[in-house]
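Please check this.
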Amino acid sequence: MKPENNLRCNPAQKCAILHDKGPACVIAGPGSGKTFVIIQRIISLIRKGVSPGSILTITFTKAAAIEMQQRFIKETDSMYPEVLFGTFHSIFYHILDSTKLTIIKETDKYKILSHILYGKDYDGEIIRLILSEISRLKNSGDSIENRDKSVPFYEEFPEILREYSAILREQGLIDFDDMVILCRDYLLKRPDIRKKWQNRLRYIQIDEYQDINTAQFEVVKLLLSEEQNLFVVGDDDQSIYGFRGSDPRLMLGFKEYFKNAKEIILDTNYRCAPKILEASKHVINENSIRFRKNIKSGKVGNPGIITGKEYIEKAEQYKGIIEEIRNLETTEKRTGNKPKLSDIAIIVRTNMEATGFASMLKEAAIPCSYKEKIVALHEKAAVKDMISYMAFMNEGHKRSHFLRIMNKPVRYISRAALTKETVEERELLCYYAKQSKLNMTTMIQKLFTDLKLMSLLTPKGSVHFIRDFMGYDKYLREKFAGNSKVLNTHLADLNEFEELCKDFKNYFDLKDYLEDEERKIENMRNIEISDKNGVRVMTMHASKGLEFKRVYIPDLNEGIIPSRKSITMEEIEEERRMLYVAMTRAKEELHLSYVKGTKENPMRMSGFLRPVKYLFQDSNFDGILIK
C-alpha cells in the first residue's frame, strides 16, 4: 500500500478520503475519481484503526461490486479480505439469511402475468410495462392509488398486482423488489437483529447514490448505528433510472435527512477534454432539480474536439458516421498509427436506433460490439397488424392473417365463424345468417369493401387507409385511453413503418424487403456482435460508467431525445441527464448530429441542444466549431 501522504490527489479528493466519522455526501461528477476516493477512504479508515470487517461498500450491480473489490485487493496486496463489497440485494439477502426464499426468474414473471392476463389482448411490451410499474411502486413505497395513469390495464391494475403477489406467495417465490421490503420489515420487527447488524457494519459506503430508491434508503437508515457513519458518493446529474424508482431528491436532500452531514464536491473532471466538458455543462445547467456545481477539466494540453452536424435523412447520417470511421484507415496511412475501433462509441437513445446502427456497421464490415436486445420494427405489435391487413388481401385470404385483424377495430367477429384455412366474405355472411345475427351483415360487407379498396393502394397508402379510414388509430386511442406510454409507443411504431412504406410500390416489394431484414436480423442474433476490438454501439442507459476517446451521438431530435413519451418536468430533466451522461463518456472527441428531414417530413433538432446551438450554425461545416 502507498503511504497516505504520497497519494496523488486534489484537495477535494483528499477531504473525502480523510473523512471518517459521521454522514458525508460526496458529489462526484463524471471522471472525478469516485472509485479511487472510495477505495482510498477504506484504506484510510483501516489505518485509523477501524476493523476491516466493519466496513461495507454497496454498489448497484454485481459487476461494479466485483470490480471495486478487485481494485481494493490489488491496492492492498490482499491484506484485508474481510472488507465487504456487495449489491443492495446481496446484502439484504444475507441479512434475511434467505435459505428458505427462492427468487423468481425474469422469464417466470412473464409467464405468471401471461396467465393472469389470459383472454386479454396483450403483448410482451405490455407485460414489461406492468412489471416495471409493479417494481416502481414497491421501490418508491408509493400507494397503488398513485399508480402511473399510463400503466396498461390501469383500472384492472390493482387486481392484477394482488393476483401476481398471491401467486408468488403460493409458490414460495419472491422478486428482488420483495427482498428490499422483506428486509426492511424484518429489521423493524426484530430490534435485536437490527442491533446486531448495526454493531457489525459500523461504516457504510454507497456508490452511485443518485440511483437509490426510497425502499433501499429506508433499509440503509435502519442499518446505521448512532454515529451514522454513512458515506455516499454519486452525481445527481447522472440519475437516469427513474423507471426503476430511483429518486435524485434522496441525494439532493441528504442534509435534511442527516443534519450534521458533510458535503464534498469533487469538482475536477479528469476524463473529458475542456471543450467537451464545457459543452456538457451548458446542456446540464438547463436542469433545475440539481446541485449547482462548477466542474473544471483536469486535462491539460489537449483542448479536445467537438462537432455538430445536420443531416437531411437518418440513412445519410448513419452513412456519414460510418464513412468517418472508415477514414481511420487514411489516418493510419498518414501517421502510421491507426486509432483503435474499441476507442470509439456510438451512443443512441433507444434500442431501435442501436439495432439500426449495429446492422449498418455489420453490413459495412466494420467490427462492432452490441449487446442490447435486437427488436425489428416489423416485430412490433401494431406494425404486425398493418402487415397482416396487407398480407390477408395479397396472400390468399389466410385464416392466420384474418385472426390478427378481424377485431382491430372491434367488429365482434367470432373465431367460431372461421371454419376453413381461408376466410371469404360469402362464408362469413352465411355463418351469421344461420346464427340469425343479421346485424353483422352490414359490418362484414363494409369490412370486405374496405379491404378491397385498401388492396388497390401502395403500401404507404394502405397503412394510411387502415389507420385513418378503417379506424385503427381510433381503436388504439380508445383501447389505451389513459395509457399514454403504450399508445404513444404504438403510434410511433406506426409512423415509422408508414414512412418506411413510401419506398415500395406494392406489397410484394415490401414483403421482400421485410424478409431480407428478417434474415439480416436473424444473422445478427445468431452471430453474436461482440467483437471486443470493434466499435461499441449502445444506448445512453448502457453507456453509464464507460469512457471512450471518440464518441458519436446521432439522432438528437425532438421526439427521440427527449422522448415524445416524456411530458412532465421531472421526465424531461431525466432525459436531459441521459444526454449529459452520453456526452461525458467522451474523452477527446465528441460528435453530435441530428436529422433535419425534408419539406414533406421535417424534423426538429432536440431542444436540449439549444445551449450549444453554436455547434450547428453551419449545416455544411465539417470541422471543429468550438474555438
About this structure: Residues 619-627 have pLDDT under 50 and may be disordered. The two ends are 43 Å apart (CA to CA). The first helix runs from residue 11 to 18. Residues 73 and 79 are 7 Å apart (CA to CA).
